[in-house]
Amino acid sequence: MGRVQSSLGHLAENMLVSSVHGVLATGSGIVVIYSCRDVMTDRHWLAREYVWFLIPYMLYDTYAMYLCEWYKIKEENRRHSLATFQSFLIKNRLMLTHHAVILFALVPVAQRLRGDLGDFFVGCIFTAELSTPFVSLGRVLLQLKQQHTLLYKVNGILTLATFFACRILLFPFMYWSYGQQQGLRLYQVPFHIPFHCNVANAFLIAPQIYWFSLLCRKAAQLFGGPQAKKDG
């Protein structure tokens, strides 16, 4: 029982930190978006300064993911080992790759490589964290075996809605915003921006689509009836 409580306590702590980050990132993104009338040249200090908060959060979240995995293994009376770490890397390879891309690619781009351009788009990327508090709450409720409660279902709907809006529709919105300023239709924008921008956006949206499909699959199981009853 003590181990279960310890695992749950760690998960709740991680949820709190992730939720605070999600709120701060989204709030910062909204401020930047509404402050930049020109999507390319207007500046806002949060577009750069919030990144310094993002870096330690990503490092913390990676460590927290490992601890969550270790607590599960600990219940089987297993200890830290190279095999444990390798198992963690394999099970979480997509999320770890996502974190690595943020730390070693997006951070340098946001801080230095883009120069004085694109604060608006950095703000848009910040708002992608809106779904994080709902995802975190869902994990805690699942750990508490509350997956058949109304709260879990409502949270699941909010998770899908915020994830779709801020991690999928976000990219067409950025293209549309640029097109509005340049007098271009949405379908014309990809042909009027640098090729590497399209490639970068494709790499960013691909895992989001995959994760969204997983969320939809879980939602279908939850609201499907027979599977839900079987799980209960």
Structure description:
It is a multi-pass membrane protein. Its main location: membrane. It is found in: Membrane. The chain crosses the membrane at residues 12-34, 54-73, 94-114, 120-142, 154-173, 193-212. Residues 7-224 form the TLC domain. This protein is mostly helical. It has one domain. Helix content is 78%, strand content 0%. The chain is built from eleven helices and no strands. It has helices spanning 2-35, 46-49, 51-74, 82-91, 93-113, 119-126, 132-143, 150-168, 170-182, 195-223, 226-231. Helix 1 (2-35) packs antiparallel against helix 7 (132-143) and helix 3 (51-74) packs antiparallel against helix 5. The chain is globular, with a radius of gyration of 20 Å. The model is unreliable at 227-232 (pLDDT under 50).
Number of helices: 11
Give the mean pLDDT: 86
**Measured distance between first and last alpha carbons:** 22 Å
The helix/strand order is HHHHHHHHHHH
What is the helical fraction, as a range of percent?
over 70%
* Overall 3D shape: globular
Estimated radius of gyration: 20 Å
Structural class call reads mainly alpha
Low-confidence blocks of residues = 227-232
The tally of strands reads: 0
Q: Strand portion, in percent? A: under 5%
Structural domain count: 1
